[in-house]
Amino acid sequence: xxxxxxxxxxxxxxxxxxxxxxxxxxxxxxxxxxxxxxxxxxxxxxxxxxxxxxxxxxxxxxxxxxxxxxxxxxxxxxxxxxxxxxxxxxxxxxxxxxxxxxxxxxxxxxxxxxxxxxxxxxxxxxxxxxxxxxxxxxxxxxxxxxxxxxxxxxxxxxxxxxxxxxxxxxxxxxxxxxxxxxxxxxxxxxxxxxxxxxxxxxxxxxxxxxxxxxxxxxxxxxxxxxxxxxxxxxxxxxxxxxxxxxxxxxxxxxxxxxxxxxxxxxxxxxxxxx
Length: 274
Description:
Radius of gyration: 19 Å
Strand order of the largest sheet: 7-6-5-8-9-10
Structural class: alpha/beta
Oligomer: single chain
Largest sheet: 6 strands, mixed
Number of strands: 10
Strand content: 15-25%
Number of helices: 10
Distance between the termini: 57 Å
């Protein structure tokens, strides 16, 4: 069964990577084929992938991040309104809003993101034994990533249910398992790391976290460092801004306003001229 899951992963991986105009791609795909067909062991994939020239690997992953950023903008999973900012629950004025659940309605984008999560986990956390999604935004994507990798899955609520079994963790959590947490969005890092703490309290070993999008807030970077948790985002705020300006979603002045917001989101207010 695991071999079937890995072969499915390879199918989608090759399907989305064939479009990259990168000379090194054929070598990369050959290495994937060798590693993944050899008894379907993710550790072999990770070892083989790491042996690939780091410059070429970076080139491929950078292109992938840019494609993801453009797709998120296209389907309005990322909305940019620096002149008419949103208001977050925290009270912050924000020129950006993420609605990552929208990707679930687009099969091609959903599959691309699923494959990239699987790749990131195999590369950075080859010893993973289970996947945990963060409720509610990452429940669905976490489940399909776990299915792709053939791994057990569970998800963690922010608070216990107020009825029934009153569960905080949904699924069969086996103490001692090495878990990778999947988030859809990391902003300040508080709720994401609360999930990590919950899993650790229940006896799991959290070996890392991946997320679809990271704002790259300095406060979040500091929190993850202090918690000794590696965060691997598929798409970052800085790359998204580059793509948004290049594709004319925003003007240069708006780009600068968005950069200023990220440095001090709590006190930011729209104040720029075209």
